[in-house]
Specification:
Radius of gyration: 26 Å
Strand order of the largest sheet: 6-9-10-3-11-12
Structural class: alpha+beta
Strand content: 25-35%
Number of strands: 22
Mean pLDDT: 94
Low-confidence stretches: none
Number of helices: 9
Largest sheet: 6 strands, mixed
Shape: elongated
Amino acid sequence: MASVRLNELTKEFKEVVAVNKLTLEIKDKEFLVLVGPSGCGKTTALRMIAGLEEATGGEIFIGDRLVNDVSPKDRDIAMVFQNYALYPHMSVYDNMSFGLRLKRLPTGKLWPMNTRRAFSKQEIDRRVHEAARFLGLESLLQRKPKQLSGGQRQRVALGRAIVREPKVFLMDEPLSNLDAKLRVQTRAELIKLHRRLGITTIYVTHDQVEAMTMGDRIAVLNNGIMQQCDTPLNLYNHPANMFVAGFIGSPAMNMVSVTVKAQGDGFVADAGAFQVELPKAMADKIKPEEGKTCMLGIRPEDIYDKNLEGLVKPTAGNVVKVNVDVVEPLGNDVEMHITVGDHTLTAMVDNKTKARSGDQIEVIFDMDKSHLFDKATETAVY
């Protein structure tokens, strides 16, 4: 096992900067997720760690070893690709063992005796059967890939990486080709597998639900720049900027343009059509923004139907009268699209709500869980 350290890692494609001075340390045995929208540079960063792309600048360390000039086969990493990349004419056993059979070590003798197999047949057999037992593939070892389901093929691709017993796993959106039910199942299997093997893992995905459920830490990328790297809950509760706030969480955080005004011993956010009281505990951080236009962030799950008994008591500073446009029952929750003046918001309320499309109701904002962002810089005020 090994840590991975990236120091100002950069990749340029002519005038396009795909990865811009990415500095990140992945601890030994950590499961780190690189997440972001398409084109943000996450797969390019992973390919540079693997050695499949040459870095324009910066350094890559695996353990204490600088690997910028080390070929991919000598970096002691194993990569799982999005499209499985299985050999269709080989059995599951042969696919899993292929890398081990191919690996050779120098003998110091003259050609053709200058190399020898790195692993004996017995060792290859042991590793393949051990990985197959981990992944539930023991009964499928003689099948060809075309005889397997999508989930089984994904497990074979994982098994091929596991038998290498590498220092680092690199996974490039390995679940994106699976259906929704199988994705949830395989996600749980990957978490258990990492816990059992304890191998440092860097996992790339654009799905923030995958990122939140799997990662010890999550690094959020946008336009090649790392926006924030933290634990899933810290990213959710304390986003560093508007991009992270909008990307982490589903449905996305509501953003409303407001003017910060002093009122009594505190501050309010005036959106024109409504006004809410900002948390008094954050007064010191809010004071420099007085009189400025900011962005108020409130998550859909922090908006409550006033007619239902909830966790937040209604006050003059947190109740807003809204029009209900669309009601979408989701089983346990109801997603409501609501409008107030020119502002369109999304609320996730309890399924006991009586609200229907076209109704006018009052909702409660949990202002203790609200966020305020500088409109110009998009950084968090609190």
